[in-house]
Fold this sequence. Notes:
Layout: E1 2-6, H1 16-30, E2 34-41, H2 45-55, E3 62-73, E4 76-82, H3 86-97, E5 102-106, H4 113-120, E6 124-129, H5 137-153, E7 159-162, E8 179-181, H6 189-192, E9 206-211, H7 220-232, E10 237-242, H8 248-257, E11 263-267, H9 272-278, E12 281-284, H10 294-301, E13 306-309, H11 312-317, E14 326-327, H12 332-343, H13 346-360, H14 365-387, H15 398-407, H16 427-473
Parallel strand pairs: 1-2, 1-5, 2-3, 5-6, 6-7, 7-8, 9-10, 9-12, 10-11, 12-13, 13-14
Antiparallel strand pairs: 3-4
Helix pairs in contact: 1-14, 3-4, 7-12, 10-13, 14-15
Amino acid sequence: MRIAQLCPFDIYRIGGVQRHILDTAAALRDLGHEVTILAPHVHDTDVTRQRGARFGSDHKGIEYVGRGWRFRTANTPVELSGAFGPERSRLKEIASRGGFDVIHYHSVYTPVLGMQALKFSRSANVATLHDTPLDTVSGAVERSYLRRSTHRLLPQLDAVITVSPISTPHYDLRRARRAYVVPPCVDLRRFMTVTRTIPEFRDNRLNILFVGRLEKRKGAAVLIQAYARLCAAGAKARLLIVGEGEERAELEQFCAKNSVPNVIFAGPDRDTPRWYASCDIFCAPTIYNEAFGIVIAEAMASGKPVVATGNPAYRSILGGEAECGLVPPGDVDALYRTLRRFAESAPLRRRLGAWGRTQALRYDTRAVVHDLVAVYSDCETQNHLRLGHPCLQMHSGGSRLRRVMLHGYGTWNGPGQSNGFKPLPGIVERSLFMGIFLSFFAPLFLSSVFLFSIRSSLSRLAGTLRFVCRAVQGRPE
Length: 477
């Protein structure tokens, strides 16, 4: 099959979605399929090639279309992408006449590149929904947007994939033709076979590893506080932090101010297998907003014990024996106690490391890619029937697809069936307007209403006070 994987983000920015797309594309190519990754330009060509070389990619099979922008609003990073002007015409040509059997959209509701390609596509369309909104007011707004946008986009999709049963309820999938739950797997072979470690960390200190972006939701600050207590209790330990983010300077200042010893801020590093191989305990203290845990699967594949927060996504991976490593999100005391228990018990670490290696095989791309091919084959068949192709070749993925649906990853089937393939005119423009309005004008409007209500209340209070003063002084109104 000819397959397109559409990424609405910077394909070479460190992130789970990007890793999943690149590793899935490589696994599909190993099976003999022709795969093209569609992604927006975020940097100029030379910078993109340099970043791709650091990532370990030679740029084969990547088609850059449209532009991407990254900014911050309400202290949250936002990434948008779209194709306008000549780039829009080029995207239309690729999506409608590119000869793809299947186009697989990732985070299709992210304005607006995926929505544009979906509008132009004549291929079978599959979408993976990666996001899990927060349990906050802003999360409720995001959840409402996700439910509305997916509800409107579903008539154009042949299949929908969510990354875990935890994230499924956040979307309105009643109109989905087919819905599956498939984890966003990566290639774990490089973690299972690595033997290289970092020489300077081969001493008698216990190495605790954190891998991820340095932002509030990842919980690095909570880990540093728990680690400081562990060192104060006399543990000979070292904290390795691999990642970059807006919190790095603040975390470094905290460590310096409080004399937290042996904290290594390594920055971003693509060669993460050697960091896993060099650690004794992996810690994932994420506070909120996780639909899956790719870094946990990587640590398990490396044979390392995992201490993590007990959010629903992590609990779905760390069940059974590994539950002893789960702690409440944001709880410094519980994280300290669990790290200390792991640090003091080498047999516990070895037992959980061995358990993790066997369990991680479920999340390797080689184990899951056949399920994706079965989904693609079924959707391609249905698309040929819908378009009325006279020569229809039936695929042999039916039994595999039934296995995925019945015995896979807790697959959920939407009860609704869409009878037609109706285009959705104006969805790109409406979604872009909604995103801009919610991000910028809605907070301004709400603050204006709040200030106006305060002003009205103060005016009425001032009038009442003036009336009382005049009454007390005996002056007429």
